[in-house]
Amino acid sequence: MTSHLDIPDAGMAAAGMAADDGRAHDDDASWQDDVRAGVRHVRDLDSLPLSPAEREAAQAAATRHKVRIPKAYLDLIDWSDPADPIRAQVIPSPEELAELEGELDDPIADHAFSPVPRLTRRHADRVLLFPTYQCAVYCRFCFRKESLTSIGRGFSREALEPAFAYIEAHPEIREVILTGGDPLSLPDKVLAEIRARIEAVPHVRLLRIHTRVPVALPSRITSGLVRSLQGRLMVTVVTHFNHAREITDAAEQACRALRQGGFVLLNQSVLLKGVNDMVEVLEELCRELMYRLGVKPYYLHHGDLARGMAHRRTTIAEGQALASALRARLSGICNPVYVLDLPDGGGKVPLGASYIEVQDGETWRIRGQDGELRTYTELVGDL
Length: 383
Ligand code: SF4
What we know:
The chain is of the alpha/beta class. The chain has 2 domains: 4-24 and 98-350, TIM Barrel (Alpha-Beta Barrel); 353-383, no CATH class. The chain is built from 13 helices and 12 strands. Strands 1-2-3-4-5-6-7-8-9 form a 9-stranded mixed sheet. It has a 3-stranded antiparallel sheet with strand order 10-11-12, with no helix packed on it. Strand 7 (296-301), helix 13 (316-329) and strand 8 form a beta-alpha-beta unit. Helix 8 runs parallel beside helix 10. The longest helix has 15 residues, at 279-293.
């Protein structure tokens, strides 16, 4: 038996999922078709309009990171453009085989900060929980690709028990972040079970879900999926749109369903050379996220040190220039924070250029958005 996403190596058999779980809702057929008609195996690359040389290179690169592309996302690719930004995110490229010294298997130290399996804790009040290491789409830039490839496990109740026990035993934990892998690649029944288990812990206040499903497989956002996440907890869904071309009618419908379900929607993007490293591209992305999808642009991540990704990384100076230009063009609600998730578990830090030039006592010299220096004098005291 295969999983809900028809994933051959999934742990869904162990999870006891019935093959017809996904048919309980009348809107499930379309996403299952999207999965089946997409790229699910390396051999499916043969069906794509690639030249023999491109196909050979893609197959070689696919040995380093899994390949999966739902049809809905595949259909966004302009095959006449070898540098198409959608293609760049999912079709393996030979540059991935070029690794630089200093690139890392685990760029943000998930494993070093993992007190029990499938849980990472870098901060006192929140933990990452990994219910699955499988995804609806495999992104070439993924910073967890080594975990997805080498661990390769799907969901299993037994595997999550130590993580649930850890959360129960630590009353300072207020937020649980489901990540992975992609948690929304799991069946509704499993999601409801995980949500119920977490909300039974009285000190947990917020459930966050980090997912690329609304981008790559928006038909998966069914009424059943929305219901599976509704309960006591405030739920925030953090999407992962990187380019305005990913914002389709189907993505809009998916985000509307999530908003109407009562969830807060945020987006984190990765700054990727050749995909979105132009201010016009980022500006359109951020505007469409907020204006069309109702999704607040949250973070713009500087490319981390994942292996084989040098060809997609910008310099920090380039990122700072883009962030400053965005800040000048966009309102606060449309502006993401440009951040770097530091190696060795240092956490996310803002990388944007400072607007403060100099401080002298209570007098500050601060550069305005127009580039001009202005003086601000602090006036603080008892009245
Ligand atoms: S969906 Fe997320 S975890 Fe999965 S491959 Fe893409 S970036 Fe990585």
